[in-house]
Give the backbone structure.
Amino acid sequence: MKIIELDEVSSTNDYCKTLTENSVVFARRQSCGKGTKGRSFSSGEGGFYVSIVNFYKDFKSENAFKIMVNSCVAVCKTVEYFNLKPEIRWANDVLVKGKKICGTLIENTFNKNIISRSIVGIGINVNNELPTELSDIATSLSCELNSKINLQTVKKVFLKNINKNFSVNDYKNYIGWFNSTVTLKTANGEEKAVAKDVDMSGNLICEIDGNIKIVSAAEVSLRTDD
Ligand code: BTN
């Protein structure tokens, strides 16, 4: 795998779209970091910003959730290395003590029922300053540990974990909110549900008024209610 290290780039995910071989792209900062659902991702100096582009010949789209599983679990293992307790908020956020420490943006290119290219973009808050408006909902490794973290260590631990093959059960082991009430947020508003499980395709299985409902991360985002 080719490793590319950049000082500044608009977005490491967008940079990956210019590449033709499997690569890992790191940037010290991003001028236009992208989040899910068209949102931006604050990407100042001191954070850990990486995208991994993979080209596949025979990766069936029904296995797309595996890409999410591997990246989220790799982030959790990286956070654990620093003796913190990560939790996954379905589908793709990693939290510490209820605050977001990492976000993942996966951009897949489909060719019929095959994923021909996947770009996995991961942003971990490490030593970067978080915008004040995010202080209630986001945290960083350095905030949690009260010290400056060596970004090279984060990189080393992350690279060790990103090449592993994790299972959906590994992913579910980082979910502490099964059987509790969550808020499902859709384009049409919010709905309370009891989260039950995540299936092999990555759908959330929940219960609303005694009825089982299966929701996909493309339509719904989640708030875990305290
Ligand atoms: C989210 O929380 O909404 C997803 C955030 C993903 C951020 C990472 S940082 C590296 C890569 N490049 C981007 O522009 N976004 C992802």
The chain has five helices and twelve strands. Residues 11-13, 30, 33-36, 39, 41, 49-51, 93, 103-105, 121-123 surround biotin (CB under 6 Å). The chain has a mean pLDDT of 95.
